[in-house]
Amino acid sequence: MDFLSANSLPWLREAQQRLQAAQQSGHLPHSLLVLSAPGLGAEPLARWITALALCESQDARPCDACASCRLLRSDSHPDVHIVRLEEDAQQIKIDQIRELIDALATKSYRGGYKVGVIEGAEALNANGANAFLKTLEEPAANTVLIMIARPNHRLPVTIASRCLRLKLEPPPTKDALAWLKANSSAAKSWDAALALAGGAPLLAVHLDADGLAEIDADMRQCLLELAEGAVDVTLLAERWNRSHPDIRIAWLENWITQRVRSSLGAATSHQSAEPVRLPAALLKPKIRALFELLDAARDVRRFASTGMNQQLALEALLIGGRTALGK
Description:
This protein is of the alpha/beta class. It is built from 15 helices and five strands. The chain folds into two domains: 3-167, Rossmann fold (3-Layer(aba) Sandwich); 211-325, Zinc Finger, Delta Prime, domain 3 (Up-down Bundle), CATH 1.20.272. It has helices at residues 13-24, 42-54, 67-73, 94-105, 126-137, 157-160, 173-182, 191-196, 201-205, 212-227, 233-242, 245-263, 280-283, 287-302, 310-325; strands at residues 31-35, 80-83, 114-118, 143-149, 164-167.
């Protein structure tokens, strides 16, 4: 567990300082909900918080030298329990939550804190959320629960309201570009990748900046044809599936988000000048359909690493897109 990697992400510093102050005053929160879009470092932050709670140093924490930190480094600390989507699963199962609850109810092996982390908490099903509620309402002593979810999560209010919220925001563009240039061996312009990543530097690192302009132009043309009903969704889904489907889905998420913001009078971005234009009077009734399309795009990306049939998922997404964008 590389818990010190969070220290290299300057946009996390404010959250780290806030939690260090809480720990030093003896008021480390027992439940945290980290809200973050992909690529902002929610997982590294959760690892750092875990180390902050478990570190045995009497000085600055985490120290990276005590026995507890060494156990964390080797991924063998007995008081850390992490839950995430299992392979080929689309939901976090109730059995996973029950195992976490049982683990947190036992005595700490090292006599300190116990930490439970739920990654992708929006994938909790209703039964799992209900089972976890009592643990949030009556947490065991010296226990820290960390849940990571997207800002648009659909966690029950009963769950979210019992957690201290930490919302991660993208750093200013100039700071993000400076970080990318300083932390990548590739000598290239990062502007397009950062824009596609929604300002998230860690996601931008994984995007191929070369060729993004071509993908951008192609996606705009695809949506124009989709809105006009001039394309076969099966053939289009097949083409997307063969050519950078992850980048295309990320592009689509950003494009829809900017359309919704633009329609509500928010600030626009370079993607607000897309060729698919609708009169304002017609756009308002379509906002609900755009939100549904955004949810569908996020589901396709979230479950891309599972065993789902991506071709069929893309076809369903494009059919929804035709409805949302059609005249």
